[in-house]
Specification:
489 residues; FAD/NAD(P)-binding domain; alpha/beta; five-stranded parallel β-sheet; 14 helices; 26 strands
Length: 489
């Protein structure tokens, strides 16, 4: 959209001042691209300064405060402490890489990048490419493996790709996978590292693996060369970025899961973006696409949105629960040391509304009375996250007893709301939200699941009256099974 508008002659009146954070080549590429496109950019990295681009030491950042449009970054320069204001922050801390050379059992294995650059006439007769062996695969690694396997096969070489699972990541990856199979590339699958035995031989390598698609079947493969891609692991810069940005890391230690259901560049805080190695290994195509999306946001942010969530200061007990639990850092203490919501930073997840002990946080769209009024007596009410379960249900024809109510986040389903639905005559309440690690509000699904468990323990409530299910937006079949397995009283 940004490219089309620019072609039509529309150029934003104001360019966002952007801070890029990362000491690798990807961060340098991001910073230089932003500067070339007219954004005044400061990069806490290792590159060199240029027109519109200032480069500072990434190890000197002391704190990051503020919200979208006005972040306050305190850092140290030449022994003095300085404050920098920025309208947006792009985090792209460089990872480290784990290679076959780090494992004694894989001595002699070749790195995938080196194999891909080998001239076709110098390739060995038979090669095995082993994926997912000591870390989960990445988008860039999978694409490189498929492309390399296809080129080697077209050069007349025998290629076998051994994988735990091949996440092809969209139409482009699927097309490469299909082309490789059609060209004669062989694919084998295993379930765990223990299912593969690797032995170095005089002529190359011998691999014995339990084939996952044929239970009980052992496959022996002899090859001239074993190839393993390097795998990114979190570098020290990621820990520092996570601490200063107050961002939880995923189970692998990155700033954000590389789950394909995510809009990868968006963080749980407005105005802060994750790019490239902040969440995954990337190639030039990935990085360019991510940067295009970020620049579109910066150049054409659209009108400011107010989610309508407000703190009633007369009811507020100043317990600061809201300040502690807000996953988007949208609540701050004002000059009177009272919590206040920044409308432009609020995502409207309503986590604060549900969890305020004094019931002092109000939202016209999230009151239990308003939501409960949408259900009728005897119905099975499904409180579905609008970004996951509600989208999965969108294409389904639900039976009459089912009443689907879309909520901003599954965490909106607090005990008070679920009790009100049951008291008003709902036969059952189903809460459906994101899978763990996929919630835009970070822990919204976890909190919703805990609320359901808490309600199930109350006197007079049976476990099947209130249930929790995780459903992604691309899982309509899963949602349909949940509905079909629900016993309607």
């Amino acid at each position: 959209a940004a490219a089309v508008l620019k072609e039509l002659g529309h150029d934003p009146a104001q360019k966002a001042d952007v801070l890029v954070w990362g000491d690798g080549s990807e961060a340098d590429t991001i910073a230089r691209t932003l500067a070339k496109n007219g954004h005044t950019t400061v990069c806490f990295g290792r590159g060199t300064a240029a027109d519109g681009l200032t480069v500072l030491d990434p190890g000197k950042i002391l704190s990051v405060d503020g919200t979208a449009g006005r972040f306050l970054v305190r850092y140290e320069k030449e022994g003095a402490r300085t404050t920098l204001t920025s309208r947006a922050i792009i985090a792209a801390p460089a990872p480290e890489y784990r290679t076959a050379a780090d494992h004694a059992t894989l001595s002699g294995a070749l790195d995938l990048t080196a194999f891909a650059s080998t001239p076709a006439d110098q390739l060995p007769g038979q090669t095995a490419i082993l994926l997912d062996y000591f870390a989960p695969e990445t988008k860039a690694g999978s694409r490189l493996a498929l492309n390399t396997a296809l080129e080697a096969r077209n050069a007349g070489r025998k290629i076998t790709v051994i994988m735990n699972k091949m996440l092809v990541h969209g139409a482009r990856g699927q097309q490469m996978y299909d082309q490789a199979r059609k060209a004669g590339v062989k694919f084998l699958r295993y379930n765990a590292q223990k299912d593969i035995q690797i032995q170095k031989t005089d002529s190359g390598f011998s691999l014995i693996l339990d084939e996952a698609t044929l239970p009980g079947t052992s496959v022996t493969l002899h090859c001239d060369q074993l190839v393993i891609p390097k795998v990114p692991v979190p570098g020290p810069g990621i820990d520092n970025a996570a601490r200063l940005l107050r961002q939880e890391k995923d189970r692998e230690g990155f700033l954000q899961s590389p789950n394909v259901r995510h809009r990868l560049t968006h963080s749980p805080r407005k105005g802060i973006y994750f790019a490239g190695p902040a969440h995954d290994d990337v190639d030039d195509t990935d990085l360019s696409a991510e940067l295009d999306g970020i620049m579109a946001d910066l150049d054409f942010p659209g009108p400011a949105q107010n989610t309508g969530v407000e703190i009633n200061q007369k009811k507020c007990a100043q317990c600061l629960t809201c300040l502690r639990i807000c996953p988007h850092q949208a609540i701050f203490l004002n000059a009177k040391d009272r919590p206040e919501i920044v409308p432009n930073a609020c995502f409207g997840c309503h986590l604060c509304v549900v969890n305020c002990p004094a019931l002092a946080i109000e939202s016209a769209s999230c009151t239990p009375d308003r939501i409960a009024a949408q259900a009728e007596k005897g119905q099975v009410v499904v409180l579905a996250c609008q970004r996951s379960a509600a989208l999965a249900a969108g294409s389904l024809a639900l039976p009459d007893p089912i009443r689907l109510i879309s909520v901003s986040c599954a965490s909106s389903a607090g005990v008070n709301l679920m009790l009100k639905l049951l008291v008003n005559g709902a036969a059952k309440v189903i809460v459906a939200g994101c899978h763990d690690g996929n919630c835009r509000s970070m822990n919204g699904s976890t909190k919703a699941r805990k609320e359901v468990s808490r309600l199930q323990t109350l006197p007079g409530i049976t476990p099947d009256q209130v249930t929790w299910h995780s459903v992604a937006a691309n899982e309509p079949q899963r949602f349909a099974r949940i509905i079909s397995n629900t016993r309607i009283l």
